[in-house]
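We modelled the chain as a single entity of 372 amino acids. Its sequence is:
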Amino acid sequence: MARLKMGFVGTGGMARAHLRGLATLKEEGKAPFEVVAACDMVRERAHDFAEQAQQTLGGKCAVYTDYREMLADGKVEAVNLVVHHAGHHEIGIPVMKAKKHLIVEKPLALTPGLGRKMIQAAKKAGVTLCVAENYRFSPWNRALKRAIEGGLVGEVYFALKEFAGVGSDIFCGTPWRHSKALGGAGPIFDNGVHDADLFLYLMGEVDEAVSMNARFEKVRTDGKRRIRPTAEDADATVLRFKSGALGHWFCSWAGHGKGFGLFYLYGSKGCVLDNTVHLDGREPLSSDELVARFAPKVRKDTVASELVDFAEAIRKGRKPEIDGEQGLRAVCVSFAALESALTRKPVRVREVFTGRAHAYEDTVLEAYQREG
């Protein structure tokens, strides 16, 4: 079967992870995509990426600094978009209007409303829209999903998902992540959207959120640059799921000294503490044991798995596992928490999903129009 011709817009660190995912698939003898174009505002970075793609995957990879010129290249059938969050709709909508299939790094869009516009653009153009949300493709999360569905820990009662770290550094060396105009929000949205997607995947729909947040670090630096963040850097949230389960969700980029991260899940028959399952009256199950039992054939390269799903969705005319609507649901979980912190009241996720609750989104759009 002929490989689909893919062009990359954005050739930074995460784009390199996608390239490694394609290399994994080539080693497996699958290679669903041929990388034929690389676009980046920095020509040297795009050129380096193109050379790496050619060495890893073979073929020819053209170099662009303007995505519009890349779209005019009739060779490109699908676009892999890996840029700051504000670029998701700025570039993603024109990509789909040009009848190109699109896989966009999480989150779907800068705000829920812009996410809805992306979904509409995909439907109108008749193309596949996929959100690159790789966490749920890990062997552990696949196994945990199947174990929960099989009743291993019983009825799920509550979950704790928490992380802190970074301190006063610029997160990932990318200043835009601290900008409301370009990143939308802080940790509960940037890497927190991974958590939101896992909540949906493992525990079902989230009904409402009650939250508080703050911006503790007034200045951030990487040793060379100093920036003044406009997004919050700590969020403490309580969630209620439609199932009746509860969740505590804490995210912080203002953690000094030593960072931490945990995911605990408790049910009527046992619990999951990070990567170990403890059941009433039984010996604990390690992550290796759970994966061997419930997901023995799931590959470790999560990005490779999401790329396979994207390719199959295009070829078979089906929805990818994380299509635009599913990606929007994860965005809305994060924004429900942000809305609650701003309005100081509980917020239903559904109200954010439909656009009825939009106070926090309005602040992002104001910043985007002013600074973006």
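As a brief sanity check on the tokenised model: The chain has 13 helices and 16 strands. Residues 136-298+328-371 form a domain with the Dihydrodipicolinate Reductase; domain 2 fold (CATH 3.30.360.10).
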